[in-house]
From TrEMBL:
Belongs to the peroxiredoxin family. AhpC/Prx1 subfamily. One of its GO terms (biological process) is hydrogen peroxide catabolic process. Thiol-specific peroxidase that catalyzes the reduction of hydrogen peroxide and organic hydroperoxides to water and alcohols, respectively. Plays a role in cell protection against oxidative stress by detoxifying peroxides. Keywords: Cytoplasm, Disulfide bond, Oxidoreductase, Peroxidase, Redox-active center. Transmembrane segments: none annotated. It comes from Roseibacillus persicicus. Coiled coil: none annotated. InterPro entries: AhpC/TSA, Peroxiredoxin, Peroxiredoxin_AhpC-typ, Peroxiredoxin_C, Thioredoxin-like_sf, Thioredoxin_domain. GO terms for cellular component: cytosol. This is Thioredoxin peroxidase. It is found in: Cytoplasm.
């Protein structure tokens, strides 16, 4: 799997749904120089683990906005599937009330570019295509900075839901480093002391100075 950390996030223009509106040309480039982006993939609309994640991102949306972070979801479903799911009440398995954009990667090119597409696709000598498994997205998550560079990525298998707290922690760590020039050690939390990237800084951190 290619590592995108330290590289420009793959660009795309695709249809997306936000609230009641279908956006014909949605791109992450609208956030360049303005907002950080948490761009996350999930396997399918109208499933079981996926709505728990989408609802949690909505519940914590104010926390992301306070950190100047835009949250954007993406799956290989169509914009019409996204729209129907967004207009289905929570008690009926829907995600009504989710307000951040959901990108429709129906051609699967975005998932391919971010290397989170599951399943195996192959062609025989006569050009006939075969597919093993489903061509849907794993639970990938990418933190993109103000310059459009990926600074963090994590990819979970289908059954494994993510941690919203860890996502926020990594955002805080990146912003702490950018603001103070201090690196963040194991299990660092917002408000904790950081470290300068030299032997003296390490010694001060370990001694509690």
């Amino acid at each position: 799997m290619p590592v995108l950390v330290g590289k420009k996030a793959p660009s795309f223009t695709a249809k997306a749904v936000q609230g009641e509106n279908i956006i014909e040309e949605f791109s992450l480039e609208q956030y360049l120089g303005k907002k950080y982006v948490v761009f996350f993939f999930y396997p399918k609309d109208f499933t079981f683990v996926c709505p728990t994640e989408l609802h949690r991102f909505q519940e914590e949306l104010a926390e992301f906005e306070a950190r100047n972070v835009a949250v954007v979801g993406c799956s290989t479903d169509s914009e019409f599937s996204h729209w129907a799911w967004l207009n289905t009440p929570r008690e009926k398995g829907g995600i009504q009330g989710v307000k951040y954009p959901l990108v429709a990667d129906i051609n699967k090119t975005i998932s391919e570019d971010y290397d989170v597409l599951s399943g195996l696709e192959d062609f025989d000598e006569e050009g006939r295509r075969s597919v093993e498994g489903e061509l849907v997205a794993y639970r990938g998550l990418f933190l993109i900075d103000l310059e459009g560079v990926v600074r963090h990525q994590v990819v979970n298998d289908m059954p494994l839901g993510r941690s919203i707290r860890e996502c926020l922690r990594v955002v805080d760590a990146l912003q702490h480093f950018e603001q103070h020039g201090e690196v963040c050690p194991m299990d660092w939390q917002k408000g904790d002391k950081g470290m300068t990237a030299d032997h003296g800084g390490v010694s001060d951190y370990l001694s509690g100075k």
